[in-house]
Design a protein that fits this description.
The protein is of the alpha+beta class and 509 residues long. Helices cover 41% and strands 20% of the residues. The protein has a 4-stranded antiparallel β-sheet with strand order 3-12-16-15, covered by helices on one side. Strands 7-8-4-10 form a 4-stranded antiparallel β-sheet, with helices on one face.
Length: 509
């Protein structure tokens, strides 16, 4: 059946041509934009995913900038702390030179002051965009990543970089929780810090037979023997005098002996070292000789150890040290303070207080820091002056930390005592500067690694986005040529179909 009203062939040809044109338009769009999914209409799901990933790429670009800024800031601090370490090492060399007797300590002190001023200049200049990591104690946070969970939530990840204060500030003593129990003084009595030495006694037995036998004495690490062959019964006073003379003849630094009757008093003025006293007997030839009973009736020792003269402030080996915890020691009308910073320990507290005491330059006062048998850190204070003093210690939380080089401005090598104290204190400061340099170096390395990872991650995200939305140009080119051929054929088919009604006219001729 032929109809001049309905040309089904033309309709089919037209629909085919429309389909070809649509595909051709889509292919041409892919070629011009380079994307198979350019808008949400092309593929809503893929387009949405690609846009989320594109926003992440933009975010990671900002993170890379943040990491670069953080790395540069840390680099400035690291270079500064390394420079300070070198300057402190130079100061140590000057302090070592000041230990000699035949040097001009005042000129050495002038050199030390010059190096100290250079350190102050380095500390003040070590800032990047206004941020100085060697002043203060607040940590710096560097944006390191944006973490997206399966539900689409995003959280920022930070790298925390600790400040390492290398200033010389004294800090501020707080008014928070009392920490007195963490600092125990060995003797709080009036006159606890005095020049008088500590003593032990050896008693030669009254009425003993000193005509035979031998005794061995160990005093402060030195040994000698006492042979009693020249004495007889009841010669305990003479025996005591002989033993006291033998002790003095040993020439033990800070140790002297005196005899009063049968009692030998051994006195030690050693500041930071005790003196052991031991007596033992060696069998004599006379049977039953009492001098062979040297650990019994013949010779007795009232104390086996003479304690060091210094008094101690013992810090708890259990309590933690928090930022702002301050401790004070007082004696001789003066108070000395140290306030701990982040990550410090009781060792730092003890050494900080030692530095504070040494910086005062009090006549006759010397200090040391050591650990007791339980591992607790102690500040030892000795007084060899003629003025007796009372020692006290307290502690409080809530302060502002002292600088990492606290006490550097108090170093004074113009005296022998000051030079000796400065030698141990400068070692602690050098250690602090070295630790700061190492900390900054480690932090910078970690940030650089993260920056490299972020760069690689960004590249991976971009590649993933390309896989989702980018057009395959080789395929699009081949498809374009095929569609162009199809379009030409479709036009030809539509033309043929449109000519079909013309044949009906021949029926009416």
């Amino acid at each position: 059946m032929s109809s001049i009203l309905t040309n089904t062939s033309a309709m089919v040809a037209l629909q085919t041509l429309k389909g070809i044109n649509q595909n051709l338009n889509k292919t041409q769009s892919e070629i011009s934009t380079g994307k198979t999914v350019a808008t949400a209409r092309d593929n809503a799901a893929v387009w949405s995913i690609s846009k989320v990933m594109e926003s992440d790429v933009k975010g990671f670009k900002g993170i890379a900038d943040s990491l670069s800024l953080g790395s540069s800031t840390i680099a400035v601090a690291r270079e500064a702390s390394e420079t300070i370490t070198d300057l402190l090492t130079e100061i140590k060399g000057k302090i070592v030179a000041a230990q000699e007797e035949n040097v001009d300590r005042s000129k050495i002190q002038t050199d030390i002051a010059a190096y100290r001023d250079r350190i102050t200049s380095v500390v003040n200049a070590a800032q990047y965009n206004g941020l100085n990591l060697i002043k203060g104690t607040d940590a710096m946070n560097v944006l390191a990543s944006l973490d997206r969970d399966s539900a689409g939530g995003v959280t920022a990840s930070q790298i925390t970089v600790s400040r390492n204060d290398l200033t010389m500030g004294a800090g501020t003593y707080g008014s928070g929780t009392a920490l007195n129990a963490n600092a125990v003084v060995s003797d709080t009595a009036a006159g606890a810090l005095a020049a008088a030495g500590n003593t032990a006694q050896i008693t030669m037995a009254t009425g003993a037979d000193y005509s035979d036998g031998e005794a061995s004495f160990a005093i402060g690490g030195m040994n000698f023997s006492f042979a009693a062959g020249e004495l007889g019964d009841g010669d305990q006073d003479a025996a005591a005098g002989i033993v006291a003379g033998r002790i003095n003849a040993l020439g033990i630094a800070g140790v002297t002996a005196s005899a009063a009757g049968a009692v030998i008093t051994i006195t030690s003025t050693r500041a930071f070292e005790g003196a052991e006293v031991a007596v033992s007997g060696l069998g004599g030839s006379a049977a039953g000789s009492e001098i062979t009973e040297l650990n019994g009736a013949a010779v007795t020792v009232a104390s086996g150890t003479i304690n060091e003269r210094s008094e101690n402030v013992t810090f708890s080996n259990i309590a933690a040290v928090s930022d702002g915890d301050g401790y004070r020691v007082s004696f001789g009308g003066k108070t000395f303070t140290y306030v701990a910073g982040p990550g410090q320990s009781m060792e730092d507290v003890a050494k900080g207080l030692k530095t504070a005491v040494d910086g005062a330059g009090m006549a006759g006062i010397t200090t040391a820091v050591a650990q007791d048998s339980n591992g607790a850190w102690q500040l030892k204070i000795d007084n060899s002056s003629t003025t007796t003093m009372t020692l006290a210690a307290v502690g409080n939380a809530g302060g502002e930390a002292s600088g990492g080089l606290f006490g550097l401005d108090g170093i004074d090598v113009t005296t022998k005592e000051g030079a000796a104290a400065a030698l141990s204190n400068i070692e602690h400061m050098i250690t602090r500067a070295i630790d700061a340099s190492a900390s900054f170096g480690s932090a910078q390395r970690g940030i650089d690694i993260q920056n490299s990872f972020v760069s690689k991650l960004t590249d991976s995200l971009r590649a993933g986005i390309g896989t989702l939305v980018d057009a395959d140009m080789e395929e699009a080119s081949a498809r374009l040529q095929a569609l162009q051929v199809q379009q030409q054929l479709g036009i030809q088919a539509l033309s043929i179909a449109n000519q079909a009604p013309q044949s009906i006219l021949s029926l009416f001729r």
